[in-house]
Each structure stands twice: as C-alpha cells, then as structure tokens.
Design brief:
The chain folds into two domains: 4-202, 2-enoyl-CoA Hydratase, Chain A, domain 1; 206-253. By secondary structure, it is an alpha/beta fold. The strands form two sheets. It has a six-stranded mixed beta sheet, with helices on both faces. A four-stranded mixed beta sheet has the order 4-6-8-9. Helix 1 packs parallel to helix 3 and helix 4 (113-119) crosses helix 5 (147-155). Strand 1 (7-10) and strand 2 form a beta hairpin. It starts with 6 loop residues before the first strand and ends in a 9-residue tail after the last helix. 50% of the residues lie in helices and 15% in strands. The protein has helices at 30-45, 67-74, 78-97, 113-119, 147-155, 157-166, 172-178, 190-202, 206-219, 224-239, 242-253; strands at 7-10, 14-19, 51-56, 60-62, 102-106, 109-111, 123-127, 131-133, 170-171, 183-185.
C-alpha cells in the first residue's frame, strides 16, 4: 500500500511536491519511491501545470535511498534490482523531460539520490546552510540514477570526478560557484524564493518555455550542427502559435501578454 502522506502535493498552476519523511531525512523506501513516481506522473499529465516546485520537509531535501533498505535491495538479484531501481530512475528522467520548468528548493542536505533528483530539475534554490554530496563510493557504489551523467553536464569532467570519487560534501556557496545552484538565499527562504521565480516564469509563454527546455536539454548530447537544426525546427513550430502572435501584439501595444498555451 502506498503511503499518501510520504509525498505531499499541493496542486495548482504552480504545484508544490513535498518529500515528507523528515524523520529519515526524506530518504525513500519502496512505498515512497512508488508514491513519488505516481505524483510526478500525475503532474506531467496535468494540462494546467505551469511550474513544478520540489522541496523537502524538515532538515533535508532528501538523503536518497534509505540505507536501511539497501541490503534488502541487493539480495533480490541483479535483474530484479535493476527493475526496482527503474522506479526512481524514471522519476528523475520524467522531471528532466517534462515540458514545464521544475524548481528544487531546499535548506538542508541533498545526498545521493536526493542530489540526483535535484540535478534533474531546471533550477535549484538553496538555503545558505544547504549541503550537496554524492556519498555512494563510500558504500561501494556510484551515483547510478543519472548522477554521473548529469553532474558531468553541469560541472565538467574534472569537477564531476572530484565530487563523485572523493564523496566530498560541498556547501551551498561552493555549489553556486560550480553552477549547481541557481541562487543561494537565507535559510528558510528557499521555498519563498522558488515561488517568486515561479511567478517570473509564469509571465513567459508556456510553449516557448517547454520548447526551450527540450532543445537545451537535447543540445547537451548532440553536435553543434544538430543543435542548430533543432533550434530552427523548434522556432518554426513556435512561429505559427497563437502565443507568438499574442506576444508580438502585446509588445507592439506595450501591454502584458495573455498567454493561452496554444
């Protein structure tokens, strides 16, 4: 049975999803993994969603996989383990691919899978006492849910090796220097700052935001000429939208645009 209160979801054009297992630093067990996947899939299907905010209850964003369950996972066999792991891998991939902006906002620690979830978001707002760490090497593992591949894209190969192979904890200020944080704010202000960022994003054309996210994410994995072709293709799609016509008219009339999302 899924524990509905392990992941809270406050719906609206700006939806807030809260990891809610604070006594375990929001580390996920099997039930919480399944519930998180269910909630994120529902959000991805929501036609009214404009911005998604992910946060954590208590002192952490998430400590990733519950260490108390790791031994049980390793005993189920390699094939079954991979299938079980997909329940959280797919969540990260969906967060990265869904065509709305996703903001991670937290004051505490994001460790292991928790950091991998944050890396799959488009923006990361950190409280000044937040900490990021990939500790997997200390238990004989590696970041295996997109952590290595996403970290390389964010900080480059040399820094990714440093973070993964040394398992060092980095503070919020250092995360900002490395480009892992969009903004560092006073403790207790991360979620409020994320809401203000969401308000700014809500003033932009939703189709353009979604297309920009798709093209930018794809361009990290293709050659520059393919990237330019994608840009031209995306632009040709947006050129014929009602939102483009509305944006052009609003600019000429010196008024705020009224986006329809079509």
């Amino acid at each position: 049975m899924l524990s509905a209160d392990s992941v809270l979801c406050a719906r609206g054009p700006v939806t807030v999803v809260t990891l809610n297992r604070p006594e375990k630093l929001n580390a996920w067990n099997a039930s919480m993994r399944a519930r998180l996947r269910e909630v994120i899939e529902e959000c991805a299907r929501d036609p009214e969603l404009r911005v998604l905010i992910l946060t954590g209850a208590g002192r952490a964003f998430s400590a990733g996989e519950d260490v108390g369950e790791m031994d049980q996972l390793t005993r189920i066999g390699t094939r079954a383990f991979r299938a079980e792991a997909r329940t959280i891998h797919d969540v990260f991939d969906l967060v990265e691919s869904m065509e709305v902006p996703v903001i991670a906002a937290f004051d505490g620690v994001a460790a292991g899978g928790g950091l991998e979830l944050a890396l799959s978001c488009d923006f990361r707002i950190l409280g000044e006492k937040a900490r990021l760490v990939m500790p997997e090497v200390k238990v004989g593992l590696i970041p295996g849910s997109g952590g290595c591949s996403r970290l390389v894209r964010h900080v480059g190969l040399a820094r990714a090796k440093e973070l993964v192979m040394l398992g060092a904890t980095i503070p919020a200020a250092r995360a900002y220097e490395l480009g892992l944080a969009t903004e560092v704010v006073a403790d207790g202000e991360a979620l409020a700052t994320a809401h203000r960022l969401a308000e700014r994003l809500m003033t932009m054309a939703p189709l353009a935001l979604g297309m920009a996210k798709v093209v930018l994410n794809t361009c990290t994995d293709v050659d520059s000429e393919t990237g330019r072709r994608l840009e031209r293709l995306a632009q040709s799609v947006l050129k014929v939208t009602a939102d483009h016509r509305e944006g052009t008219a609003a600019f000429a009339e010196k008024r705020s645009p009224r986006w329809s999302g079509c």
